[in-house]
Design a protein that fits this description.
Number of helices: 9
Shape: globular
Strand order of the largest sheet: 1-4-5-6-7
Distance between the termini: 33 Å
Number of strands: 7
Structural class: alpha/beta
Length: 214
């Protein structure tokens, strides 16, 4: 990306010939977000193959906050921005066979989802109901990388559909001590439903990636 023809060819080769488990997309490609109409051919091919699509954040097309590295604040923002762009541009509705995994707990999407649904249906597009927007937002999967905190994890678990939360560590990009910091909160969270912790650790991923379950 943003070379759509090359991206389509590479995705088809990876999925059909190499039997890859899925593809990775960055949250924006030179400032163009993934719901851009020009990217439609790629989504069509991915949907045809029922592909897993992992979205990792990139630097958004704006200046950094002074003294603030992009992974600290902007990456969280850009994941949310990209996901909302996919929903508002109808990609998640038109392509129901793709399974889109958002890294880092989906940015702040779980926390702000009902803000997005309420405002969209009342001041952005009155032809779309809040329920329609919410349904498309709930299609996303989420990994727990850098996000299993005492404040973020309850919001994520309250919002995500059953089976849509997957373990993530952000290794090797985040150092081991960072992963251990969030693993501690994930492992000691007191309010899991029965079997929910084991599902996050492994079973949910086995459903998305059945070859890895063998």
């Amino acid at each position: 990306m943003p070379d759509v023809d090359a991206a389509v060819a590479e995705a088809v080769h990876a999925l059909d010939t190499l039997h890859a488990d899925g593809v990775v997309l960055m949250s924006n490609a030179r400032g163009r977000y993934l719901g851009d109409p020009d990217f439609e051919p790629l989504w069509a091919e991915l949907d045809y193959r029922g592909a897993n699509v992992f979205i990792h954040p990139a630097q958004p097309p704006m200046d950094l906050l002074p003294g603030t590295p992009a992974p600290l604040a902007d990456y969280v923002f850009d994941t949310t921005r990209s996901a909302l762009n996919l929903v508002l541009n109808g990609v998640m509705h038109r392509y129901p066979n793709v399974r889109v995994i958002l890294s880092h707990g989906g940015g702040f999407l779980p926390y702000a989802a009902y803000r997005f649904t309420g405002l969209t249906s009342t001041v952005v597009d009155r032809e779309r109901t809040a329920e329609d927007i919410l349904r498309d937002l709930k299609r996303f999967y989420f990994d727990t990388a850098l996000s299993a905190s005492p404040s973020a994890l309850p919001a994520l678990l309250a919002f995500a559909e059953p089976g849509h939360v997957l373990y993530g560590s952000d290794w090797p990009f985040a150092p081991q001590e960072t992963g251990s910091y969030y693993n501690h909160y994930l492992e000691t969270y007191p309010d899991y439903a029965p079997g929910q912790a084991d599902a996050i650790d492994r079973r949910n991923a086995e459903i998305l990636f059945p070859p890895r379950a063998r």
